[in-house]
Amino acid sequence: MSSRTDDDHTGTRIKEQRKLARLTQRRLAERIPYSYSLLNQVECGARPATDEFVAAVARALGVDVRVLTGQPYVSQLRQDRLSALVRPIREALDLYDLGANPDLTARPADVLIGKADQLCQDVRATHLRKAAEKLPWLIAELTHVAWSAPSTTVWQALASTYRTAHDIAVKIGFFDLSTVALDRMDWAAARASDPCLAAIRQYKRALGYHKVGAPVGGQRLIASGHSLLALESSREALVVTGQLHLGASAVAARAGDEGAVAAHIKAASDLAKRVGGEAGEIHWLSFGHTNVHLHEMGAAVAMRQYDKALVQARKMKLPPDLLTSRRARFLVDRALVEMETGHSDKALEYLVKARKAAPEQTRYHPAARETISGLVRKARTTPDTLGHMAAWVGL
What we know:
The chain has 22 helices and no strands. The chain is an all-alpha fold. The protein has 4 domains: 1-70, lambda repressor-like DNA-binding domains (434 Repressor (Amino-terminal Domain)); 74-193, no CATH class; 215-321, no CATH class; 323-395, no CATH class. Mean pLDDT is 89; it is low at 1-7.
């Protein structure tokens, strides 16, 4: 099965940048911790470029990761008609400093605040289209109210909608838009004088550094988030602090620092005990013992300790009320782990479950694409289910 039907893929962009750097494939392979054979297969589109691979190539070539990834889901976004929803979000984010809109009649502030929280819930339920359709108008109304009748709760709600814009953008691969959204979130959080929202913004920024393989930047952002909460002792602050530790564990895992991963997981676990049970309602962070265990497994996956991750996954008992976004992420990670440990049938089974639980999120998740591509390579014959999954994600 051909992995792509066109030349618009990360491998093509790697090839272009390699040639601009006047490097042969063998010379580039010598500069990254991957084989010449893998580099060759990625460039021709026969194998997918994992996040770790792209980050290593970007460092070797001295370019930003986004130069190599581009917009990786163009055809699927068009099929899902999600790309048409991005432009209104981008335009809404640009309204922040224009003051009140005299031509706009906004809904009451308490209604808008409730709608902002509902959008967070929609994203965690993986209803991306539903949230993306409502988001621009809500940003416009909250921006108007924040300027015409400012209050702490309105600025907090506006910061929340900017966070939602970031989350949607990340899930469908518009990383430039996600950066703008986080800048706006910082702007609104400052006006709300809300250290927890400001810390969450640093947490989100750190995850961005994690994705592009820049652990030092990620660590500094996590430290900044902790400093914002140094004088806070509320349950809300404990939850955000715990989530910062979980973010730090992900950054450390990408850097291969097992000691730091263990330290941050323990710190998060201790905070989960202090918080008491699951605290999914606080900023929709899903912080609690379950999320700590999920991040511990995720760290093992990031460090390619697949046997360890499989043991952890098999012990995992997800509560029935776990947010759909977290459940689907676990299923995708479980599928990758099953594939890497030689259980192809199980891997496909978990991919199907992930698709059923959260089709929009799963379709655009890099690990899902990586796992499907790996299963295709391993299969002597491609089962119909696997073939349908490969076509569904655009491989």
